[in-house]
Amino acid sequence: MRLLFLAVLRRHTGNAVTAERVRDHLEAAGHVCLLKDAFDLESSSEVAHLIRAENLEAALALHLYRGGRLLQGHGIPFGIIFGGTDLNEDVKQREKNEVMGRVLGEARFAVAFTESMKETAQTQWPHARDKIYIQSQGVMTVPNAAFNWNTFLHRSGINQSADNLHIFLLVCGLRQVKDPLYLVDAFSEWHREEPNVYMVIVGPEVDPVFTREVKAKVKRTAGVRLLGEMPQGDLHAALRNCFAVVNSSMSEGMSAAILEAMDLEVPVLARNIPGNAAVVKHEVTGLLFSDPQDFVQLAKRLVREPALEKELVANGREYVRRYHSWQAERDTYQNLVRTLEGSTGE
C-alpha cells in the first residue's frame, strides 16, 4: 500500500524520531511510506494534489492538529498518532479543539502513547472512545563504540578528571516548551558548593530566538554547559557515560531521552508533569521533581546513595524491557495500518 505520513519533522524533536521509527515499521511490512513535514504543506488542496500525483491509497498523521487537519475530506482512509502538544496544549484552544474532534471522527484509529493521553482524548472527544489504542513508544539504543567521553567533556569546556565528576545530561531541542533554563540557577548554586557537578544541555537549535536566550544565560552561569546536537550513536554513548539524565520540560508526550536512559541503565530525574509521570514512577524507575530546589535535593540524594541509584537503574531497565518493546511497537503499527487497506473513506 502507498501511504502518506504527515508529521512535524523538525530535526531531533521527539515527534521526528517517532515518525522515522514508525516509517521503518511500515516499510518493513512492504508498504511505501511517503514521509512529509506537515509544516511544508500549507493547505488541504496541496495535500489533495500530492495524493493524486503520488497515487496514495491511505494516510497517517503524527499530531492530531498539525498533521490530522490536513487529511480530512480526501476520500482516503487515515489513522492518527497523538503527538503530545496536541493533547497538552492545542486542546485548550476552542477552535483547534473542534477541528481535532472532526479529524478524529473521520480517522479509522488513533494511537496514544500512555493511558493518561488516552483518557484525555476520550474526555475531550467521547465519540472517538472506541478507536483509541495505547501503544507505548518502542526503544532501541545503539551507542557508538568509538565515542570518547573525555573528548565530550573537553568539548563541553569541562577540564577535570572524569573519575571525580557527576555529569547531569539534559537532552532537548532548544525551544520554550522544553524549558532547558528551568534548573539552571539552582544547579549553578549547587555547583558553587560542589564544583564536581555539572549540567550539560545537549540538543539542536530549534527556535533561533530562544536559542540566543539560552546561550546568553548559560554563558554567564557556572556549572552549566551547552552543546549542539549529536549523532544518535554518540548521544546514546554520552547518555551511557553520564551520571544521570534530566528532563525539565513543561509538556511531554513521551520523552525518548528518558526511555533511552532507562534502556542504557542510567538514572533519570524528571519534572513532575503528566507525560513524565506516566513513565517515571517516583523512587521506583526514577525521581520526579516539582521545582528546581526539589531537583537539587533529589540529585544530591542520588549522589549520596549508590544503593538508590542501583535500584532505580535496575527497575528502569526492567520497565523498558517490559513496556517499551520495539518489536511490540512494530507489530501494533503494522496491524493497525492493515485496517486502512482495501477500502476508501467517504
> What amount of the residues lies in strands?
15-25%
* Terminal-residue CA separation: 19 Å
Q: How would you write the strand order of the largest sheet?
A: 2-1-3-4-5-6
DSSP strand tally: 12
Uncertain stretches: none
* Inertia-based shape: elongated
Q: What's the order of the H and E elements? A: EHEHEEHHEHEHEHEHEHEHEHEHHH
Oligomer kind: single chain
Largest sheet: 6 strands, parallel
Calculate the mean pLDDT score and round it.
94
Q: What structural class is derived from the secondary structure elements?
A: alpha/beta
Give the helix tally.
14
What is the gyration radius calculated from CA atoms? 21 Å
- The percent of residues in helical segments reads 40-55%
Keywords: Glycosyltransferase, Transferase
Protein name: Glycosyltransferase 1 domain-containing protein 1 isoform X5
GO molecular function: glycosyltransferase activity
Pfam families: Glycos_transf_1
